[in-house]
Design goal:
Keywords: FAD, Flavoprotein, Oxidoreductase. The chain is an alpha+beta fold. The chain has four domains: 3-92, Uridine Diphospho-n-acetylenolpyruvylglucosamine Reductase, domain 2; 99-217, 2-Layer Sandwich (Uridine Diphospho-n-acetylenolpyruvylglucosamine Reductase, domain 3), CATH 3.30.465; 220-341, Alpha-Beta Plaits; 342-431, Alpha-Beta Plaits, CATH 3.30.70.2740. It has 16 helices and 19 strands. The strands form four sheets. Strands 12, 13, 14, 15, 16, 17, 18 and 19 form an eight-stranded antiparallel sheet that branches. A five-stranded antiparallel sheet has the order 5-6-10-8-9. It has a four-stranded mixed sheet with strand order 1-2-4-3. The two termini are 26 Å apart.
Length: 469
C-alpha cells in the first residue's frame, strides 16, 4: 500500500489531529533524546484509547506495515526509534493520559499507558498512597514505556522493578485483538502469567495500553546518609548489615566511585562532597517508614556500629528533607557530569550482589591494563546488583575511534559480567544497543524460546522490528 493511501485510512481511524506528518513535527519522534539514533517514518499515529490502537493495528496487520510503539521516548537503548527505511509507522501513546481508577482500599491505580510516571505518583499522593517507581526521567517517561522496558530506578531494593509493581495489563496484539487483563488481583493462578510476557518485551510482542499498578502506604518521613569506604567489598558488607538491622525500612542503597563524585563536583553547579576526607567509594542510603520517629536513631546506631567495626571509614547523616535532597542531587548529577566531561561508553549490568566486589576488582584491573588512561565511572543501584560501569572517552574522540573502543570495551566488560553469572542489560533494555550482543550472552535454548514466542505472537514480524531480537 502506498503511503498516501495508508495515511488516508489512518486518518479515518484517529482523525487528522491524531497524525503527525510534517518533518518538523516528527523530529522528536524519529530521534532519541540521546542523539544516538535517528530514523524516518511516513506518519506518527497518536491514538486516544485502546479502541483506536486496536483499529490502527488491524490496519497495519492487514497491510503488513511495521509499527514502532513509543511512549515518552526517554529510553537509553534506541528501543523506540524507527530505522531509516521510511517504512515504519510510529505509534505514539502520548495522547492516552487518563487515570482510569484509583482504589485506595485495594491499593491499586489503573492508568492509560501514556500517563507520565510523575502523574501516576501524583494521583497516588492525592489519596494518601505511594507509587514507588522513581526515575530521573519521571517527568517525561510514560508508564507504558516503564512497563515495556521493565524499568528499575532507585527503589528496587524495597519495592522491586516495574514488573513487581504491575498487577494487570491491557494489551493490543499485533493483529489488533485486545487482551483485557486489567485485574487488580494479588493472587491469580488461573493459567499462564501473560502480563509478565509483555512486561520487558520492548514493544516486540504487542502494545501495552493500560495497567493496574500497586500502591503502598505513603511514607511519613525519611532519613539518609552518605558513607565513605575504601573498597566495594566494604560497601557490600554495609548493605548486608543495614538490611539485617533496618529490614524493609531500607528503601535505597546507591554506590559511586571517587571519580564519579569528582566529576559531579567539577561539572554540576553547587555540588560539594559531603565528607571532608577523600574516599575511594561512596554510598548513599535511605530509610523511610510510615512511622518515622525512630528512623534517625536507627540509622545512627547502625552506622556507628559499622564505623567502630571498620566496615566504613566515615559518614554523615541527613536529618531533614532538604539535606536528603542535597545528597540525592549528587547521585542524580552523575549523568549530567558525564555528558559535560566526555563521551561515556555505558554498561548497564547486573550481577549477584555477592559477586559485585570481585567483579569490580577484576574489571578495574582488566581495563587499566587493556585501556590505559581511560577513567572508569562506576556507580549504580548496588542494593539490587545493578551497576552502571561506564568508561569515559575524551570529548573530541573521532567517531571511528569511538566505535572501535566501544566495541572493544563492551566485549571486555560484558564477558566478565557473563563469567560471573550476570546480565548485560539490567534496567535500560536491549533495544538496538545490545541486540547484536544478545546471542553471545544468551544460551541457544533461551534465544530459541524467545524467537518462538515472537513468531507465535507476531508472525509477520511487524512489531518494533530490529529491536531486542
Amino acid at each position: 500500500m502506498r503511503n498516501h493511501e495508508l495515511i488516508e485510512r489512518l486518518s479515518h481511524l484517529v482523525g487528522d489531529n491524531g497524525l503527525v506528518l510534517d518533518a518538523e513535527g516528527q523530529g522528536p519522534y524519529v530521534r532519541d533524546w540521546l542523539g544516538k539514533w535517528q530514523g524516518s517514518t511516513p506518519v506518527v499515529v497518536r491514538p486516544r484509547n485502546a479502541t483506536e490502537v486496536s483499529a490502527v493495528m488491524r490496519l497495519c496487520h492487514q497491510t503488513r506495515t511495521p509499527v514502532v510503539p513509543q511512549g515518552g521516548n526517554t529510553g537509553m537503548s534506541g528501543g523506540a526509534t524507527p530505522d531509516g527505511s521510511g517504512a515504519q509507522v510510529i505509534l505514539s501513546l502520548n495522547r492516552m493520559k487518563r487515570i482510569r481508577e484509583v482504589d485506595p482500599v485495594n491499593n491499586t491505580l489503573c492508568a492509560d499507558a501514556g500517563v507520565l510516571l510523575a502523574d501516576v505518583q501524583a494521583a497516588a499522593r492525592e489519596v494518601g498512597r505511594f507509587f514507588p517507581l522513581s526515575l530521573g526521567a519521571e517527568g517525561s517517561c510514560t508508564i507504558g514505556g516503564n512497563l515495556a522496558t521493565n524499568a528499575g530506578g532507585t527503589a528496587v531494593l524495597r519495592y522491586g522493578n516495574t514488573r513487581d509493581l504491575a498487577l494487570g495489563l491491557e494489551v493490543v496484539l499485533p493483529d489488533g485483538r485486545v487482551w483485557n487483563g486489567l485485574r487488580g488481583l494479588r493472587k491469580d493462578n488461573a493459567g499462564y502469567d501473560l502480563k509478565s510476557l509483555f512486561i520487558g518485551s520492548e514493544g516486540t510482542l504487542g502494545i501495552i495500553t493500560g495497567a493496574v499498578l500497586k500502591l503502598y502506604p505513603a511514607p511519613a518521613g525519611r532519613v539518609a546518609a552518605w558513607v565513605g569506604a575504601d573498597t566495594p567489598a566494604q560497601i557490600v558488607a554495609l548493605l548486608s548489615r543495614m538490611q539485617g538491622v533496618c529490614g524493609e525500612r531500607l528503601t535505597a542503597f546507591e554506590m559511586m566511585s571517587a571519580h564519579c563524585l569528582d566529576l559531579v563536583v567539577a561539572h554540576v553547579s553547587g555540588a560539594a562532597s559531603p565528607l571532608a576526607a577523600r574516599h575511594a567509594y561512596h554510598a548513599l542510603l535511605e530509610l523511610s517508614d510510615t512511622e518515622p520517629a525512630g528512623l534517625p536513631a536507627l540509622l545512627e546506631a547502625a552506622l556507628g556500629a559499622a564505623l567502630e567495626d571498620g566496615v566504613i571509614q566515615d559518614c554523615v547523616v541527613a536529618m531533614n528533607d532538604t539535606q536528603v535532597q542535597t545528597l540525592w542531587r549528587l547521585r542524580e548529577g552523575i549523568s549530567q557530569a558525564q555528558v559535560r566531561a566526555g563521551k561515556a561508553v555505558k554498561h548497564d549490568i547486573a550481577l549477584p550482589i555477592s559477586r559485585l566486589a570481585a567483579f569490580v576488582e577484576e574489571a578495574d584491573l582488566a581495563l587499566v591494563s587493556d585501556f590505559p588512561g581511560l577513567p572508569i565511572i562506576n556507580f549504580g543501584h548496588i542494593g539490587d546488583g545493578n551497576l552502571h560501569y561506564n568508561v569515559l572517552l575524551p570529548p573530541d574522540v573521532a567517531p571511528a575511534e569511538y566505535a572501535r573502543l566501544t566495541a572493544a570495551l563492551n566485549r571486555r566488560v560484558h564477558d566478565l559480567v557473563a563469567q560471573r553469572g550476570g546480565s548485560i542489560s539490567a534496567e535500560h533494555g536491549v533495544g538496538q544497543l545490545r541486540r547484536d550482543e544478545l546471542r553471545r550472552y544468551k544460551s541457544p535454548v533461551e534465544m530459541d524460546l524467545m524467537l518462538m514466542i515472537k513468531r507465535a505472537l507476531d508472525p509477520n514480524q511487524l512489531m518494533n522490528p530490529g529491536k531486542l531480537l
